[in-house]
Amino acid sequence: MKSRPFWRSLGGRIVMVFVALLLAVQGVSLLLTRLGIERSAREQIDVRLSHGEALLREQLSQRGELLQAGAATVGADYGLLSTLQGEVDADTVRSTLEDKLGRLRPARLAAVLDRQGRLLAAVGPQAAALAQQAARHDDGRWQEARLVRLGDLPCQVVKVPIGQRGEAPSGWLLAAVPLADLLPELARLAQAELSLIGPQQVLASTLSPARGTAALAPLLQAGPAAQELTLAGDALEVRRVELPALGEAGVPLVLSLSIDEAVRPYEGLQGSLLLVSGLGLGLFALGSLLTARRLTAPMQGLVDATRRLGRGDYATPVATVASQDEMAELAQAFEGMRQGIAERTEHIRQLAFWDTLTGLPNRSQFEDEAARLVSGEAGAALLMLNIDRLERVNQVLGRAAGDQVLRQVAQRLRALALDLPERQPLVARLGGDEFALLLPGADLGRAREVARLVQRQLTEQALVLDGSTVDLSAGVGIAVAPLHANDTEALLARALLALTECKRRTAGMLAYDPSIDAGSAQTLSLLGELRQAIRGQELRLYLQPKLRLADDQVLAAEALVRWQHPQRGLVPPVQFIPFAEETGFIHELTLWVVDEAARQAALLRAQGLAPRISVNLSAHDLMKPELQQRLRTALQRHGAEPGWLCLEITESAIAHDPQRALQTLHALKAEGFRLSIDDFGAGQTSLAQLIDLPVDELKLDMLFVRTMDQDADKASMVGALVRMGHDLRLSVVAEGVENAAILQRLRALGCDEAQGWHIGKPMPAEELPSWLQARALLASVQRA
Question: TM spans, by residue (predicted)?
């Protein structure tokens, strides 16, 4: 047995309690220190961003003044003025403008306009667009620097007259600097990172390319308030600044400062605090450990003794404790326990691995030995036997006679094993009337030969018990490793399957075949998949409309369940409903249908529709005492009323336990549910039972309805059932209406409601409203 981890020992818990308290105190202290540092850093960042914004606006104003001065100098230049005298040549103007552009640095865009504002020449990308903006927004104040968007590119622009001061201008000079070109210098002067934001994207940024700018996207439509963003793992505090622009919304710039860089100067202080805390924690833990060891040392000897006992060492005496306190008494009690356990262990060992009745190895010893033999390269064959008629012997002659049969079978199997040429054949009693014979190295053919020898050994000589002759025989199931399985557990399971099928077929002996357990595996798989279908929301509720024949109105629908399997697709109910009924899982399916039907009923009423939804109840459902409460819970969950549902009960479900079913139906009727007898006429309900049942309607089985247009006898039967239902003051519903002739015949017979593919196929519940609307529209068109 492994030694107990220190943290689970008494001394460890003592140390951990005190260390945890110290950690809590130091943790809170470090946390408060960290929060204070971050709060101080953020306050500093807010101040720096405010100063940065002010510097940014001031620098832009100064840059505008410099641009205006440079443009005024070029506009007064004689060379440029002379190109506008007389007949103007656009190429000459452009050439002169390109020559003068160096004096407009850092301007990269320039344009010359005539007196009427028409473009004569342009230099630089989008300079023509610059001229168009000037013409569109000429408010007489262009000699001041303005911000203008050229496409998505904001620029700082001035417009000055060309000519001598005091004279009428010969034209106009436009000069523009893209704001993105000024960004690095403005960021340096503002002492903050700057990002230029366009209408849909980040246009330019001084942030490191490694950080990326995708996280700035939320600021495209954000307000001016400061925010925190994370770029490439670095926390930034950002502030959006709106710069006024000509003729449109302002130009947004984002100032950002790293919170991590602001906090970094304090990391040394935090490291020192952490180092001091760590040293204090280590000294405190050491002191606590020494104290705990002094308290727990007397118990260590008893712990070691307990571990030895756990390992099965009962020979080593428990060490005595020198003191005369309770620990010494505990040591003496442990020693007495050791001696008692040692005496009983040997007896228990016999009981654990041997069958006391037959003297054969029991299941535990058999599985241990078989694991070694089965895993070998030669493999092994397993014969599993089940004694025939042993329970009958126990009933007629008593348990003692049955025990004698088991002992006789064990003797004969043991004798047979000794005569077999196989090395180390193993015989065991697995339990009850089951025995096993394991043949190392045997193949399937040899296993069949030995099975015949076993049957001959048992049947050759009858057994006489209390004057009665008992013929011994057994069914034998065979499984071979590695042909059928590679481990003992699987081999036993396959042999048991073969034995079970052998007994069912009364075949005497049968070897395992994969087809034997295919049905069992599929059954287990289907049950598991059904449970997963409910948890994984794979089930779908379908609704089939019911037509009221008096006025052709659809005021009801039957709830049907479909299974949308992720691999098999849409599974029809015929493939899983019978199995669910057989296993009792039908109750869970019913509850799911009720819950979904209540939800759909509430949704339909919210849309102004109020069809009554019918739900089928099985015999399993009627036998559940908690059925009423669970139905009530489902309705309350969705705000539905009992009268919105009609519970359909088959005749066979009532016949299963009429008294119990009648009690349940009265309780459901009192709750407010509408009740219906489903498949009426094909079951076992008598007229006397029908009178006592608190139902509201009869639903005629489709066996009578779907061929009544071709069979007069069935039509007469339907008419009789309709009249009987009305005499009992019950509404009558016919299902299986497949054509118009049947529908017309039912209407003539006075049937109240009809259901079938001619009226409407089962459809997903969410499609019913649109189906009802389409039907109403078609009816109105036909009436018109």
Answer: 12-32, 273-292
Residue 106 clears pLDDT 70, i.e. is over it: yes
Place of tokens 């037959």: 358
Alpha helices in 312-387 (DSSP H): 326-353, 363-374
Contacts of 596 (CB under 8 A, 6+ apart): 539, 541, 559, 765
Tell me if 80 sits within 8 A of 163, measured CB to CB. no
- Residue from 174, 64, 178 nearest 122 by CA: 174
Q: How far, in Å, are 57, 66, 67, 134, 765 from residue 62 at the CA level?
A: 9, 6, 9, 22, 71
Q: Assign domain 524-783 one CATH number from 3.80.10.10, 3.20.20.450, 3.20.20.80, 3.40.1260.10.
A: 3.20.20.450
Q: Give which of 708, 657, 659, 652 is closest to 678, Cα–Cα.
A: 652
Residues 336 and 613: their CA atoms lie apart, in Å, by 74
Residue partners of 184: CB distance under 8 A and separation at least 6: 206
First to last CA, the chain: 91
Q: Residue 2, SS3?
A: coil
> 331 is written with which tokens?
């040591």
| Chain mean position to CA 586 | 24
Residue 238 pLDDT level (bands cut at 50, 70, 90):
confident
Instruction: Look at residue 769 in the predicted model and tell me its pLDDT.
Output: 93
The structure's pTM equals 0.42
348 pLDDT higher than 60? yes
- Which CATH topology does 11-203+223-280 take? Beta-Lactamase (3.30.450)
Query: Would the pLDDT of 211 be above 60?
Result: no
The domains of the chain are located at 11-203+223-280, 314-353, 363-516, 524-783
* Distance of alpha carbon 228 from alpha carbon 237, whole angstroms: 5
Architecture of the 363-516 domain:
2-Layer Sandwich (3.30)
For the ranges 159-163, 220-224, 526-530, 743-747, the one whose mean pLDDT is highest: 743-747
Contact 756, 735 (CB under 8 A): yes
